[in-house]
Amino acid sequence: MSTPDVPFEAQINKLWGHIRGLHVLHLIRTGANLGWFRLLAEAGERGLTPEDLAAPRGLHLPFVRIWWKTAIAWEILDPAADGRARLAPHFDAILAKPGDPRFLLPYVVATLDHFQPDLATHTAAMADGAIRTFQEHGHAFTEAIGDTTAGLHALMARRILPGIEEVRVALAGGGSFLDYGCGIAGLVRHVANAFPEARCAGTDIHRDGLEQARQAVAASGLEDRVTIHDGNAWRGDGASVDVITMVEVLHEIPEAVRPDVLAHCRHLLRDNGRLVILDETYPGDADLRNPDAALAVQTQYNEMTWGNVVPTAQQQESLLADAGLRIVERTTIGGIFTQLIVAPQGD
């Protein structure tokens, strides 16, 4: 039964907005592939004409004009003087500044190249419940996911960790750091550069990712300060780590082994150490439309056929408590991510 106070046209417009969203992603991908966002960012407020975009590659001007006009209509570009257009506010950081914590272009690319094909399998998955884990997706997928989390890694190393007093003091004083679920070592390398006195390490179970991580560490010239461990076998020394991080990792750990993983973190963590978790928190049924839960709901749907389950706040607290850990502080980052600062019980 329809809700009387919701106009029919509003629902139609809502669906058209969702359909438009897919087109917007493809428009952005085209602009990125052709280097236009970099050119527009360099042009700044002056902006560029369609001819400016077409000329360097000798592109088909009528199609370029349509792209340019559509980008204005969809508020990716803003009109400027003399038939030019410039990037709309903040899209220089969002689409043209790799390494910026707000750089979202890799997420657009991963959505089209990797998430979209997975989403197309959901009809069949509803019947057979088939799971294809993160580790089964291959090299290109691993690299793409690493790119999507690069901004979070920069944010963690430059702002979040230095903003936690116990963490800042420990790492600045030559303490030990471990990124649990390090992927291709993006965060480990950021932390090693931000805290040159710290002893840094990463661990992961994805062997393809581990190889990429070791290559990235070597290419960065950090082999003498950064160690990458194979989590399939490595246990480490008890009470030996000052700071452990998990960035977009907790919800990816199979539910059956989460207690063991968090117990391992407690085993590694010094009694005055800190575990810093950045992840999503799944809402209760009454909060499914809460804007703060938007990414958690999206992530859960997007990753359900990977076998991932986004925990609720109560589940997070129970898991940590059972491992001998407690949440010191829970905050929301950017209106979508949950940040947990965790300490050993008794500290």
Helix/strand class: alpha/beta
Q: Which spans of ≥5 residues are poorly predicted at pLDDT below 50?
A: none
* Series of secondary-structure elements, N-terminal to C-terminal: HHHHEEHHHHHHEHEHEEHEHHEE
Task: Tell me roughly what share of residues is in helical segments.
Answer: 40-55%
Would you tell me which CATH topology of the largest domain applies? Rossmann fold
Mean pLDDT: 95
Biggest sheet statistics? 7 strands, mixed
**Discrete helix count:** 15
Reported CATH architecture of the largest domain? 3-Layer(aba) Sandwich
Shape: globular
What order do the helices and strands come in, and which of them pair?
Blueprint (H helix, E strand, L loop, with lengths): L7 H26 L2 H8 L6 H5 L6 H13 L3 E3 L5 E3 L3 H6 L8 H15 L2 H7 L10 H10 L1 H11 L4 H8 L3 E5 L5 H9 L4 E6 L2 H13 L6 E5 L10 E7 L10 H11 E11 L14 H10 L9 H10 L2 E9 L3 E8 L3
Parallel strand pairs: 3-4, 3-6, 4-5, 6-7
Antiparallel strand pairs: 1-2, 7-9, 8-9
Helix pairs in contact: 1-6, 6-8, 9-11
